[in-house]
Design brief:
The protein contains twelve helices and ten strands. By secondary structure, it is of the alpha/beta class. Strand 1, helix 1 and strand 2 form a beta-alpha-beta unit. Helix 4 runs parallel beside helix 6 and helix 6 packs parallel to helix 7.
């Protein structure tokens, strides 16, 4: 098929902030950025090629004030604008914050529209800090559940795990920049995988096949140092505190892409796949690809995506 058309969609305040960070970089491939919010101020701050002000006649461009029903109605009022903006797209990577109006109201309304268009969605959502109160955490749970009901794969990024992942010495701005940087690295690794021809190739349809397994998802990227064991890297990725999931072993599908130099051995490739299969015994689909790099100056890397994870405990 022709090069896949990918949209990075930021919804609400956190989504717009993430696009502002991503705007500092050049993303390869056929990628567009779209921001959607009831707040005109949030859209002005977002670095996006296309901006959709949701329900101006209802919210007046002043935001939704945490009111999820207002955000949902505003999104439905802007349905035509959203459909025109997102039409002719092969994949949407959505970024949103949970616990407020856009997370529970706007984001699920948009993924419902995308499901009607049969456009696959991988959503990255950030959950509130515990100190923000029971109400916001309940709204966050409801928002994630609503996204899952629309059939998309959802990666949960818990704000409460920032200290565990980064250390207490980080400033708040550095911590949020770290989350944005994680998103950027994942997007770059994904786009690189889709654009490069590998020795054992993984293409766009392989990726879509994995994220079509509805449920929570875990995604991670890591460099390979000379002393690293790839199974140990996988273990760190599966247990990354920035990617919260208590039941990763229940994943139904996984995609694993390795980039390495020409000395990479068959036994390493087999050992990596075997280790992943042991960690996710419920998986009915594991796709593993390999790209050999002739440039010895570039470090090897591991990209992991596991989808279709069931959860039975609160996420927030």
């Amino acid at each position: 098929m022709a090069e896949a058309k990918i949209v990075i969609l930021g919804v609400g305040g956190l989504g717009c902030a993430a696009l502002e960070h991503l705007g500092q970089f050049v993303l390869q491939g056929n990628v567009r950025t779209v921001a959607a919010s009831t707040s005109a101020a949030e859209l002005r701050a977002a670095s996006a090629e296309h901006k959709v002000l949701l329900g101006f006649e209802l919210a007046g461009g002043e935001g939704c004030g945490g009111n999820s029903e207002l955000a949902r109605e505003a999104t439905m009022l802007s349905k035509q604008d959203l459909l025109e903006t997102l039409a002719d797209t092969d994949l949407v990577l959505m970024i949103a914050g949970m616990g407020g109006g856009h997370g529970l109201g706007a984001a699920p309304a948009i993924t419902t529209m995308l499901a009607e268009l049969k456009i696959p969605v991988l959503a990255f959502v950030a959950t509130p800090f515990n100190f923000e109160g029971k109400r916001r955490n309940q709204l966050s749970e409801q928002g994630i559940a609503a996204l899952l009901q629309t059939g998309c794969a959802v990666v949960v990024l818990p704000n409460d795990q920032l200290s565990a992942a980064l250390g207490a010495g980080f400033s708040l701005q550095q911590a949020f920049s770290a989350i944005h940087q994680v998103l950027y690295q994942l997007l770059c690794a994904l786009l690189e995988m889709l654009s490069e021809l590998g020795l054992i190739n993984l293409d766009f349809n392989d990726f879509v096949q994995v994220i079509s397994h509805n449920g929570l998802a875990v995604v991670g990227i890591a460099d390979i140092a000379a002393e690293d064991s790839i199974p140990m890297i996988l273990q760190r990725l599966l247990n990354n505190p920035l990617i919260k999931c208590q039941s990763v072993h229940s994943a139904q599908a996984a995609l694993l892409h390795l980039a390495a130099d020409n000395t990479f051995k068959l036994e390493q490739f087999e050992a990596t796949g075997s280790y992943l299969a042991q960690q996710i015994p419920s998986a009915n689909l594991i796709l593993q690809g390999l790209t050999l790099r002739s440039d010895s100056a570039r470090r090897g890397s591991v990209l992991l995506l596991a989808c279709g994870i069931r959860h039975h405990q609160p996420l927030c």
